[in-house]
Amino acid sequence: MLTEKLLLHVLIVLAPILLLSFFFEKRPIGQSPYFTGMLHSLSAILCVVFAFYEGSLYWDLRYVPLVIAFLYGGRSAGGMVFGFIFVARTVVGGDALVFALSGIVLAAAVPYFYCSKFIELSPAKRVKNAMLMGVWPSFVQIMILFSYTFYYDGETNEEFAQSLSHVLIFGIIQVLAVGTAAKLYELVIERSLMKNEIERAEKLNTLGELAASIAHEVRNPLTVVKGFLQLMQRDDKADNHPYIPLVLSELGRAEVIISDYLNFAKPEFKKLERFSISQILSDVMLLLNALAVKQGVELVSDLKSEPFLFTDRNQLKQAFVNIIKNAIEATPSGGTVTVSLSVSGDQAVVTVADTGKGMTEEQLSRIGTLFYTTKDKGTGLGTTVSVRIIESMQGRVSFKSELGKGTEVTLHLPTVQND
Ligand code: ADP
Ligand code: MG
Predict the structure, then answer these.
(1) CB 3.0-4.6 Å disulfide test: which of 30, 37, 69, 397 passes with 23?
(2) How far does Cα 373 stand from its chain's mean position?
(3) 241 domain-assigned
(4) Which atom of ligand 1 is nearest to the CA of 378?
(5) Taking a C-beta distance cutoff of 8 angstroms, is the pair 324, 283 a contact?
């Protein structure tokens, strides 16, 4: 009988959250604590009114809306539910009224003090902690049961045992109800966050396209300026303008940034062909060897196999250059950068491992995001461009790093048959 009643209450306490999910995205009512409080108060009152009466105690799930309202709606919502339960319970009356009222105060106290911390937790932790919060009212209920029996002593042992089993069933259902309610709440929150995220991504996408077209327009005048400066430099026999080389090198940098950005915005695969990936890696390492020697870094290659790819050769080269260059730049003199190539199933696996300074967890999580750099003259485009290129080739990139020990970048690329 108790179980049936409590299962009905589970429905009653979940109803406000389902209702709220219709309104959640409609500001201002959807997220107003008073609206939330109102809905939960209603379900709490229903719980009190339809309580299961036995052994001079009322059994119901009124604490679930109380806890949930405090945790997810804040103090004003929780306070409202508290007030309504208090009044409703007083109206119902009965000889255990004093115990019931003190139970309500005790049960509200913990979520009242805890709720400001609660909302800052991660969603998964929130559900767990909410369930723990659900244990507290059950505990209060047990205390009430004991003290009530102690004071009135009207119960036989048999009745007491039954009450105890009720507390157990009650406790389990209560914790489950709080858990389900919290999970439901999280789903509602997640859905609204996701909707905002999609809207933001759409805006960013438009902005990105705009930026790409501006970058494209800026490149043309830059080329013209560069051309004329080169002419001036050639005619400048007496070296009247010693700063021209500097201007030219900065212009070159601007050009690289713009073309990197354009490549990021839309990697263009001009010419698709079949080629050997080890050939490309050898080319790139030859190209970067000068930089490695300058830094005092040993560049080691370990090209075990000879897989073939079908894609744009130059784009792939660009991706490798960016990643290997980062590895060289991160490695102090005397260190090594090892580039290895192997095959796993129908995937070519390239790893670039360095013995450099490595990255912290935080840096590792930010790598690959646009404009993230820790270097003075860095652009924060290299990794992002590489990841974009590899992903457009249906490949994937993963980073592993340990601070002070080094970094390992692994690239997987789909291969094609030899012939
Ligand atoms: P940039 O090289 O212009 O700074 P990147 O996108 O190439 O931009 O790299 C972003 C950042 O990632 C670098 O500034 C660096 O802090 C970090 N990083 C990339 N590769 C490595 C590596 N192999 N070891 C340590 N840090 C790295
Ligand atoms: Mg770089």
Answers:
(1) 30
(2) 21
(3) yes
(4) 3
(5) no
With a 6 Å cutoff on the Cβ, whether 335 touches ligand 1 is no
Determine the Cα–Cα distance for residues 340 and 281; give it in Å rounded to an integer: 9
pLDDT of res. 56: 66
- Asked whether 405 lines ligand 1 (CB < 6 A), one says no
Q: 159 in a domain, yes or no?
A: yes
Give the pLDDT score at 49.
87
- CATH at residue 377: 3.30.565.10
104: nearest Cα among 115, 116, 124, 88: 88
pLDDT at residue number 156? 66
Mark the ranges of the chain whose per-residue pLDDT is less than 50.
none
pLDDT score of 147: 76
Pocket test for ligand 1, best of 299, 324, 383 (most atoms within 8 A of CB): 383
Instruction: Return d(Cα 180, Cα 336) in angstroms, integer.
Output: 54
Structural domain includes residue 132? yes
What's the pLDDT at 229?
A: 92
Q: Are 76 and 33 in contact (CB under 8 A)?
A: yes
The count of domains in the chain is 3
CATH number of domain containing 11: 1.10.1760
Structural domain boundaries, residue 226:
200-265
User: Which residues are close to ligand 2, an ion, with C-beta < 5 A?
Assistant: 326, 382
Q: DSSP class of residue 310?
A: E
- Taking the CA of 381 as reference, the closest ligand is 1
pLDDT tens by residue, 136-182? 887 887 777 777 766 665 556 777 777 777 778 888 888 999 999 99
What pLDDT sits at residue 419? 61
Look at residues 246, 265, 284 and tell me which one is the last residue of a structural domain.
Answer: 265
From the CA of 400, which ligand is nearest? 1
Can you read off the two tokens belonging to residue 24? 């959640």
Q: Which two tokens stand for residue 76?
A: 């004003």
Residue at a domain's end among 214, 234, 265:
265
108 and 162: one domain?
Answer: yes
Please state the pTM of the whole predicted model: 0.58
Looking at residue 55, what is its pLDDT?
Answer: 66
Name the residue at shortest CA distance from atom 23 of ligand 1. Answer: 327
Atom nearest to 322 CA in ligand 1: 7
